[in-house]
Write a structure and sequence with these properties.
The structure is a single chain. The chain is α/β, with parallel strands linked by helices and about 300 residues long. It folds into two domains: about 5-165, P-loop containing nucleotide triphosphate hydrolases (Rossmann fold); about 170-290, no CATH class. Helices cover about 45% and strands about 10% of the residues. It contains twelve helices and five strands. A five-stranded parallel sheet has the order 2-3-4-1-5, with helices on both faces. Helix 3 packs parallel to helix 4, helix 7 runs antiparallel to helix 11 (about 265-275) and helix 9 (about 235-250) packs antiparallel against helix 11 (about 265-275). The two termini are about 25 Å apart. The structure holds zinc ion (ZN). The site of zinc ion (ZN) has 8 residues, from loops.
């Protein structure tokens, strides 16, 4: 996890956390665990330097993984996958914000968590924005917005929040893909290796089903993690920088997929864009690059 992310619980414990935080990057479970830790640190009643204690009446009732348990000052919303919700409906956001209009029941403040803030219904996002714009003249009110990528949230929400990136996520199962990428590079370094990477990444994405479902992010997140892992092991600094930049681009690439661009062309476009900066003679080009514009 990034250093900035690791510092959030102690900022929360000291009461110095910005009122609205966007937690993005990393794995979904990592974001949930961090949000849980921050929420406990905010409401825990032990001494500031021992928060969150994990044992007090507040800590024990804040548990996102077990659906929150009951704490009147800790509210979180998420999309109900069981009901096949594709967005977080606006009425769920309104219910959450009703709590924000009253004083805390038990704790010294309130904490609101929105899991998958990128699928907030636009009307819900606007209602939330209005609440963030209200001056906090009462007890502390903290909002944690979780998203795979902050770039998917409304710019107005982003400008009202402090954005913290957790990292490229756990490569886990994709160690194998990262090693394959590294082998390809060592065999034919430079631009040709990047061209080979495009094929390997596109193949992996199809395997993960990212090809079929235009909304799916997981496939992109996983190949981005593998690219980042391989990038860190490249010998030349310029190659490392270009490959890391490609990994960051891939985290956001599903947005291009929503415009129905084929995954392979997206990967080609992103790869070529990252290479052109230093190496205009690169051997492969793509119309995706024209869609994306210059780097
Ligand atoms: Zn506690």
């Amino acid at each position: 996890m990034s250093r900035a992310a690791e510092q959030l619980p102690s900022l929360a414990a000291a009461g110095r956390l910005y009122p609205s935080i966007i937690l993005h990057g990393g794995e979904p479970a990592e974001r949930l665990a961090l949000a849980n830790e921050i929420a406990r640190a905010l409401l825990c009643e032990s001494e500031p330097d021992t928060r969150p204690c994990g044992r007090c009446r507040h800590c024990r009732r804040i548990d996102i993984e077990n659906d929150g348990v009951f704490h009147p000052d800790f509210v979180f919303v998420r999309r109900d996958a069981g009901k096949r919700e594709t967005v977080i409906p606006v009425d769920k956001v309104r219910t959450l914000l009703q709590t924000a209009q009253v004083s805390p029941f038990e704790a010294r403040g309130q904490v609101f968590v929105i899991v998958e803030a990128e699928v907030l219904h636009p009307a819900g996002a606007n209602v939330l924005l209005k609440t963030l714009e209200e001056p906090a003249d009462r007890s502390p009110r903290n909002f944690l917005l979780l998203a795979s990528s902050a770039s998917e949230l409304l710019p107005t929400l982003r400008s009202r929040s402090w954005t913290v990136y957790l990292g490229a996520g756990d490569v886990g199962d994709d160690d194998e893909l990262a090693s394959d990428l590294l082998d390809l590079w060592r065999r034919r370094p430079g631009d040709e290796a990047f061209a080979l990477w495009v094929s390997a990444l596109a193949a992996r994405l199809v395997e993960d089903g990212g090809f079929e479902d235009i909304r799916a992010r997981q496939g992109w997140t996983r190949i981005a993690g593998a690219v980042a892992a391989a990038a860190r092991r490249l010998d030349r600094r310029a190659d490392r920088a270009a490959a890391l930049a490609l990994a960051a681009d891939l985290l956001d690439a599903h947005r291009l997929r929503q415009r129905s661009i084929q995954p392979r062309r997206i990967i080609e476009g992103l790869a070529v864009r990252r290479l052109r900066r230093d190496r205009p003679q690169t051997g492969f080009a793509s119309s995706v690059n024209e869609l994306l514009g210059p780097p």
